UniProtKB/TrEMBL annotation:
Record protein name field: VOC domain-containing protein
InterPro entries assigned to the protein according to its UniProt record, in alphabetical order: Glyas_Bleomycin-R_OHBP_Dase, Glyas_Fos-R_dOase_dom, VOC_core
Signal peptide: none
VOC domain ranges (all copies): 67-187
């Protein structure tokens, strides 16, 4: 149980107070005299009871995780390992937080690692269209950031194989040296509720894939000063089926 929930009632002739780790209240001698404070205390006490029961009577609805932490990629040998490591340090401008002869951790934010790459000698190269993970997606804050990262990667010899406005996102797809597919995207709507509403639209039902575009066209539209919302708005091209290369 979290330490901040370990409270207990202190019986006294005065109004109830709280005690934590043998000390009254939150490390002080503060007394809870007012009714509102007692109500807060009652709510905390009920929370303790619930937390105490959750292990014996957990129910069948699983607690949701806080966030998706990282992705681990298998690679077959030392040469592939080096190629994958070098690719992701460039592709994400990632920092290496740990590396030995068979394992590498990389991150691009405050998390200790977002991508892990490991040598698994029995791993084989992707052949055909195997079942499993389709792609890993990375979100940028703005269209400008997405386009700038595209140009920066292009200067490093990394180019997308598919650029598409899905409707909810504007996306560019890449492949790493082992053939794993990567999506870089920006949200087209300001809120998740708007994106969900688009999922429920007839337009999305007819075309859940999207409308392709040229990345250089995106850059030129941004350079011209065109408003972001106009660029993000997906053209209605009617029914579409099938994904290029998939």
């Amino acid at each position: 149980m979290p330490s901040w929930l370990i409270w207990r009632v202190v019986e006294s002739s005065e109004p109830k107070c709280l005690e934590r780790d043998g000390e009254t209240s939150l490390g002080t001698s503060t007394r809870w005299h007012e009714q509102s404070h007692i109500q807060i205390f009652d709510a905390l006490w009920k929370a303790i009871i619930i937390m105490g029961d959750i292990y014996d009577n957990p129910g069948s609805q699983v607690l949701r995780p806080a966030f998706l932490a990282h992705v681990v990629l298998r690679t077959p040998d030392r040469a592939s390992f080096r190629a994958m490591r070098d690719f992701y340090t460039k592709f994400l401008d990632a920092d290496i937080t740990y590396e030995n002869n068979v394992l590498c951790f990389l991150t691009y934010d405050d998390e200790h690692h977002r991508i892990a790459i490991g040598i698994f000698p029995e791993t084989t190269k992707r052949v055909g269209k195997p079942a499993g993970l389709a792609h890993i997606a990375f979100t940028f804050r703005t269209l400008q950031d997405l386009a700038a990262a595209y140009r920066q990667r292009r200067n490093l010899g990394i180019t997308p194989f598919w650029c598409v406005n899905h409707g909810p996102t504007t996306s560019l797809y890449y492949r790493d040296p082992d053939g794993n597919e990567l999506e870089t995207q920006v949200d087209n709507f300001d809120t998740p509720a708007e994106a969900r509403a688009f999922f429920a639209s007839k337009e999305f039902e007819e075309n859940p894939i999207g409308v392709d575009f040229e990345p250089e066209e995106l850059v030129e539209r941004l350079r011209s000063g065109e408003e972001d919302w106009r660029i993000k708005k997906r053209k209605n091209v009617g029914v579409r089926q099938g994904i290029p290369g998939w």
